[in-house]
Specification:
The protein has 655 residues and is α+β, with helices and mostly antiparallel strands. 29% of the residues lie in helices and 23% in strands. It has a six-stranded mixed β-sheet with strand order 3-4-2-1-5-6, sandwiched between helices. The chain has a five-stranded mixed β-sheet with strand order 7-8-11-9-10. It has a four-stranded antiparallel β-sheet with strand order 16-17-18-22. Helix 6 (163-180) packs antiparallel against helix 12. It starts with 7 loop residues before the first helix and ends in a 5-residue tail after the last helix. Mean pLDDT is 77; it is low at 330-440, 442-459 and 461-465.
């Protein structure tokens, strides 16, 4: 086969694929051009999530007809003139590829003018590069419309995701650019509805405009400057922590970028405050000599490379740690600590790394793989469902405790232990006059609960005592006496397993257990979430979420699943949508599995929630009624068991 040069229109479509990957890519390029043009007002209009129309209007300096004709050519730009400019890029755009790439895959129209007292120029171009010139009205600025994106590349158009996903990406770009330039007014319309209106404001007010009032009083301002670089911005407090990515915003010299080094540095600084799988909120602005960073890694200009990665990492870690240390984010523990303190329900560890002499740096239970301690409670071998937990018939894994593990369970005793005087009134250490907080486990269940777990599900747990030993440890783990020793249950993943199997049944059989809200609740969110909720309405209804659309950015919630905790209906509803979207982006699950895992993860009781005796017993009972009680839907262990033989060995007992 002979080698030949591709025709210009085919080459253009191929090249456009690197620059314009989806509607949000076109939005980014057009809005960045508006910012570079000195605009103080930028308006974005999208129809059909950008498929039908993307239109950006600005009041920047505009272009003459001559410049406009040049701007649509390949590699035409006013932002760099020679090779040395590549080492000191200060504008958002510089490659001169965006407009040419859009023209290759859309119906393109541009109106631009440099003087409000003069007539503007209008250019209409299609992928054949045929230019139609017209005279427009009096106008200063630029108005660009990209119509029917990817109309001439069906394969690429079919590659686009659902409307809600594409709109979410557009909103994400819009919000990031709005954060990067708080001195500019931004407006966004979707299908003729105004969904964002951000007047020019201070950075603090811009954060509230973008993220809502929840951001107020829940962020920490940080700022540090050196001769080499500076870092400023806002770090999220515990209330803003999420289980999904997406609220990490980094701006380098005014450009929103992604950087593994900076993200890792921030997460490293947060390490003592976050549970596994938590993601902190941050909006950070990094300023550095443009010659010390390469922003020309990819046509999208999102990835960057630093000359001194280690310096950036160390500096960012130090600044974030200093900022976190300036606020008392971690509750101190004491004998008078209020067990209902909300700060203990935020997923942060219950200790500070400074000034502690306890065991919190030691390895977790089962960190060493030695024989002697079974992960699975006795009786599991008889359960056919355990086959789902084993992979390819592999042997059951066992782990062993070392001395550090025992400390982890029981803590280290400090001070002198004294025998109480004979006849003294010794208080019950487990007695608490405070009424336990309501949880999803006892919602809507007025009848007295009759525990079954010690009678039915596991012979190992059969007790002659009618009230066997059971306590909650650090509002996170449930310790339960069984015939052969001690069983430890992670309350969150246990409830997650219960809800997962319940959700799977409801999604396949369509038998929701829900309760009607006394007053329907209006949930405000971004249009992408509302659109996604509409797409998933059938699945959400089966789970027990009954709602109807109220506007482009609102739904009215009328009923919720019985398992949802009072006051958390809106939070759980939105978190399920976020988690579902993350799973869908990763393309790892089918629709039903995705929804079941999203629901169980977000609706389950959390570490830090206090449970009553009845609730703990109910949780154990329902856990062992599931098909696979020993592992959560994400593969984490739910139950550990420590045998009496193991205790005897640790305490040196021989009989």
């Amino acid at each position: 086969m002979k080698i030949k040069v591709l025709p210009e229109n085919i080459a253009g479509k191929i090249a456009a694929g690197e620059v314009i990957q989806r509607p949000a890519s076109a939005v980014k390029e057009l809005m960045e051009n508006s910012i570079d043009a000195g605009a103080t007002e930028i308006e974005l209009i999208v129809i059909n999530s950008g498929r039908t129309l993307i239109r950006v209007i600005d009041n920047g300096e505009g272009m003459s007809e001559e410049d406009a004709l040049i701007s649509v050519l390949k590699h035409a730009t006013s932002k760099i003139k020679d090779e040395s400019d590549l080492d000191a890029i200060t504008t958002l755009g510089f490659r001169g590829e965006a407009l040419s790439s859009m023209i290759a895959v859309s119906k393109f129209e541009m109106k631009t003018g440099t003087d409000p007292a003069k007539l503007s120029a209008i250019l209409k171009i299609d992928d054949s590069r045929t230019i139609v010139k017209e005279v427009g009205g009096y106008f200063k600025g630029t108005d660009i419309s990209v119509k029917n994106l990817f109309y001439n590349t069906p394969a690429r158009r079919n590659f686009l995701k659902t409307d809600s996903t594409e709109l979410k990406h557009i909103i994400d770009v819009f919000q990031k650019l709005a954060l990067s330039r708080n001195n500019i007014s931004f407006r966004m319309f979707s299908d003729e509805a105004l969904i964002h209106d951000f007047p020019a404001a201070s950075l603090e007010d811009r954060l509230i405009q973008v993220f809502g009032e929840k951001i107020e009083n829940n962020t920490i301002f940080v700022e540090e400057r050196t001769d080499y670089l500076s870092l400023s911005g806002f770090l999220g407090k515990p209330a803003l922590v999420k289980k999904v990515r997406g609220d990490q915003h980094l701006f380098l010299n005014g450009r929103f970028v992604t950087s593994k080094q900076v993200n890792f540095a921030v997460f490293n600084a947060y390490e003592n405050f976050l549970e596994k799988g938590d993601y902190p909120f941050f909006v950070l602005f990094l300023e550095i000599d443009p010659a010390k960073v390469d922003v020309n890694v990819h046509p999208s200009k999102l990835e960057v490379r630093f000359d001194e990665d280690k310096d950036i990492f160390n500096f960012t870690t130090a600044v974030v740690k200093k900022g976190l240390a300036s606020f008392d984010l971690v509750p101190s523990l004491g004998f008078t600590a209020n067990m209902h303190d909300d700060s203990q329900k935020l997923g942060f560890n219950d200790y500070s790394r400074s000034g502690r002499g306890d065991f919190s740096d030691r390895p977790a239970i089962g960190a060493t793989a030695k024989p002697g301690l079974g992960v699975i409670p006795g009786g599991a071998a008889e359960r056919g469902s355990f086959q789902n937990f084993r992979e390819g018939g592999t042997e059951r894994k066992k782990v062993s405790l070392n001395e550090n593990d025992i400390d982890l369970i029981f803590g280290a005793l400090s001070g002198k232990i004294e025998r109480a005087p004979e006849g003294a009134d010794i208080p019950n250490p487990f007695d608490d006059s405070t009424e336990p907080q309501a949880t999803p486990l006892n919602r809507g269940k007025d009848a007295q609960y009759t525990p079954k777990i010690f009678e039915t599900y596991n012979a190992d747990m059969t007790e002659t005592d009618s009230t066997p030993f059971i306590i909650q440890l650090h509002n996170k783990y449930i310790l339960c006496q069984i015939k052969t020793g001690l069983m430890i249950i992670d309350q969150h993943v246990a409830h997650e397993r219960i809800l997962y199997e319940l959700a799977k049944k409801q999604l396949t059989k369509g038998m929701p257990l829900y309760q009607q809200l006394l007053f329907p609740k209006i949930i405000k969110s971004d249009p992408a979430r509302v659109l996604l909720a509409g797409e998933l309405r059938e699945y959400l209804n089966r789970l027990g979420f009954i709602f109807k659309p109220h506007s482009k950015s609102e739904v009215v919630l009328e009923c919720v699943p019985q398992q949802i905790k009072d006051g958390e209906e809106e939070k759980v509803f939105l978190e399920i949508l976020d988690q579902y979207l993350e799973y869908r982006e990763e393309k790892i699950l089918d629709e039903t599995e995705n929804m079941a895992k999203s629901f169980s993860c977000k609706a389950a009781i959390k570490a830090g929630e206090r449970l009553s005796q009845e609730e703990m017993r109910r949780l154990i009972d329902e856990l062992f009624a599931t098909e696979n009680p020993y592992v959560c839907p994400h593969g984490r262990p739910v139950v550990l068991k420590i045998s009496l033989d193991e205790f005897d060995r640790r305490f040196g007992r021989t009989s």
